[in-house]
Write a structure and sequence with these properties.
This is NAD(P)-binding protein. Keywords: FAD, Flavoprotein, Monooxygenase, NADP, Oxidoreductase. GO terms for molecular function: flavin adenine dinucleotide binding; N,N-dimethylaniline monooxygenase activity; NADP binding. Belongs to the FAD-binding monooxygenase family. The chain has 16 helices and 20 strands. The chain is α/β, with parallel strands linked by helices. Helix 1 (18-29) runs parallel beside helix 14 (439-459) and helix 14 packs parallel to helix 16 (514-526). The radius of gyration is 23 Å and the shape is globular. The protein has helices at residues 18-29, 46-49, 70-75, 85-98, 188-200, 224-232, 234-243, 262-275, 291-306, 312-318, 336-339, 387-390, 402-405, 439-459, 469-484, 514-526; strands spanning 7-14, 34-37, 105-106, 111-117, 122-127, 132-140, 162-165, 180-184, 203-208, 214-216, 331-333, 345-349, 355-359, 362-365, 370-372, 375-378, 393-395, 424-426, 465-467, 532-534. Helix content is 31%, strand content 17%. Helix 1 links the parallel strand 1 and strand 2. The strands form five sheets. Strands 1, 2, 3, 4, 5, 6, 17 and 18 form an eight-stranded mixed sheet that branches. The protein has a five-stranded parallel sheet with strand order 7-16-8-9-12, with helices on one face. Bound molecules: 3-acetylpyridine adenine dinucleotide.
């Protein structure tokens, strides 16, 4: 063993979010020696970091929970249809305790590098805690929305008040009472937090670059009788979820938008509206591929939303005109639009009046207006899908850096592996449907596939598995072509890297849907891992 190496294991898992936790549980249960590292002080991943007011899941609680253990899913009682961040953290804490997952993790520790030893086909993983671990397999479960993005605004460092990023929220919470607050950004995080910040702030200014589509969450407590009934139907609920496009037990209307009468169309939109949240973008099967169909959904949305906003000029600013509905992730809100009917809340459209700079006392706009502020909240999103991997120096064959190989966009086979990086897996990331689906079921899908794959290698005496260059090229093309056949390319979304200056404009997720993707990866496994070289 290399002198520097402090430990030798079968698998290193990076990340203790929903994917990493299940990976540790599953692989350890199969007898692999597993070592986990996590940047945060505890488990939870995005839910550990995103503690901003109003943080709430946009997938129903019953679905956004592990399915791998029947006693776990029957034993945990969700209190609300859409769980808020504290309840999800309690759940993940419970999972970590129940399966004793913390004992294999080192927390407050970032993985700095992973380097392939080509002779031994092993990875050397170095951490900022000084550990050097040799592992046969390296599994990244670092999350797609874990690298907070703060835009560079001239003069931001001179601002005298406090600044926050929604994705790095103080654990003790923030009291905005008596303060003039600015929120920059109106994606999910901004739209969820703005109504609650408005309840405390004396003045709230929302700086909006792009208007977004948001739908009322329709959240409600789940009473005991309903919960019993839902749990009794869990098996069927999960079966439907696994077949679905998004990992939730909901199917689109069987017919296309314009093939039904107006009355039937409105009825279908109304039902999805009542259901609440992101599923609205999948009311009809053609909504994200046919602009005329999309326009119907958009018009219904606009009618509903304008009715919630008092001032038509404010409504004009809040209604998006730059992208079809659902081509950025639809936001799920609680009283977002009504917030702008309050006297002390003001909306600034940055397209018309951009931020020129910040100074000690606030924000200066291009038209010369100075907005005096005591605190600024950056709800400006993430360097999504690749940002967290980019922080790790991953060196494969010939010392090649993964970030160099991915300079023109992520290159994967099935989202799982990359040529030149044998035995290295990236879970629930680019090339997979995970950010477009229920990530907990996606995590289970990936980890179960991985566990079978490692079993296959051992059973047949292989040391390693590596995606072939050809399979990677084909998968990249397939992902690109599938996306090009939809309307998803027409929005400047984080799916496309469009929110990060200089990032290549490549649609990173697989748009074919969770169920279809599950069939594809199962078929690859059944074929003896076609597209991979077994070494
Ligand atoms: O980030 P975002 P998010 N100047 O990138 C604006 C998931 N999530 O944290 O649209 C001014 O969506 C930016 O403007 P524009 C969910 O998948 C889920 O809100 O780029 N503004 C945008 O308005 C979600 O999609 C939940 O023009 C700037 C905002 O900041 C994903 O996480 C809750 C700017 C960023 O929006 C990310 O959501 C929260 C600049 N220089 C998050 N740069 C739920 O489960 C950026 N912006 C419900």
């Amino acid at each position: 063993m290399n002198d520097n190496i402090t430990e030798s294991v079968d698998v290193v898992v990076v990340g203790a979010g929903v994917t990493g936790l299940y990976a540790v549980h599953k692989l350890r249960g199969l007898g692999y020696r597993v070592r986990g590292f996590e940047r945060g002080a505890d488990v939870g991943g995005v839910w550990y970091w995103n503690r901003y007011p109003g943080a709430r899941c946009d997938v129903e609680s019953l679905d956004y929970s592990y399915s791998f253990d029947e006693e776990l899913q029957q034993g945990w009682d969700w209190s609300e249809k859409y769980a808020a961040q504290p309840e999800i953290m309690r759940y993940l804490d419970h999972v970590a305790d129940r399966f004793e997952l913390r004992r294999d993790y080192t927390f407050d520790t970032s993985v700095l590098s992973a380097e392939l030893d080509e002779e031994a086909l092993r990875w050397t993983v170095r951490t900022d805690g000084g550990e050097v671990v040799s592992a046969r397999f390296c599994v990244f479960a670092v999350g797609c929305l874990s690298s907070a993005h703060r835009p560079s605004i001239p003069g931001a460092d001179t601002f005298a008040g406090d600044t926050y990023h929604t994705g790095e929220w103080p654990h003790a919470g923030v009291d905005f009472s008596g303060l003039r607050v600015g929120v920059i950004g109106t994606g999910s995080s901004g739209i969820q937090s703005i109504p609650l910040i408005a309840e405390q702030a004396t003045e709230l200014t929302v700086f909006q670059r792009s208007a977004n589509y948001s739908i009322p969450a329709g959240n409600s407590p789940i009473d005991a009788a309903t919960l019993r009934e839902l749990k009794a139907g869990y098996a069927e609920r999960r079966r439907l979820a696994r077949l679905s496009g998004g990992g939730s037990p909901f199917m689109t209307h069987p017919r296309k938008t314009l093939d039904v009468s107006e009355a039937e169309r409105r009825d279908a939109f109304e039902k999805r509206w009542e259901l609440g949240g992101v599923l609205y973008s999948k009311t009809f099967p053609d909504q994200l591929v046919d602009l005329a169909a999309n326009d119907e959904a958009r018009d219904f949305w606009e009618e509903k939303v304008r009715a919630r906003i008092g001032d038509p000029a404010v409504a004009d600013l809040l209604v998006p005109t730059d992208h079809p509905i659902g081509t950025k992730r639809i936001v799920t809100d609680s009283d977002y639009y009504e917030t702008f009917n309050q006297e002390h809340v003001r909306l600034v459209g940055l397209r018309e009046n951009p931020i020129e700079r910040m100074d000690e006392r606030g924000v200066l706009l291009a038209d010369g207006t100075h907005v005096a502020l005591d605190a600024v909240v950056f709800a400006t999103g993430f360097d999504a899908m690749t940002g967290s991997l980019d922080r790790v120096a991953i060196r494969g064959r010939g010392g090649r850096l993964l970030t160099d190989d991915w300079r023109a966009g992520p290159r994967t086979y099935l989202g799982l592996g990359t040529d030149g990086f044998p035995n290295l897996f990236n879970l629930t990331g680019p090339g997979s449907p995970c950010v477009l689906a229920n990530v907990i079921l996606c995590a289970e899908q990936h980890v179960d596939w991985l566990a079978d794959c490692l079993g296959h290698l051992d059973e047949h005496g292989y040391a390693a598995i590596e995606a072939s260059g050809r399979a990677v090229e084909d998968w990249v093309t397939e992902c690109r072509e599938r996306a090009a056949g939809t309307l998803m390319m027409s929005a400047d979304s984080w799916y496309l890297g469009a929110n990060i200056p200089g990032k290549p404009r490549v649609f990173m997720p697989f748009v074919g849907g969770f169920g279809v993707y599950g069939e594809i990866i199962a078929e690859v496994a059944a074929s003896g891992y076609k597209g991979f070289d077994l070494l």
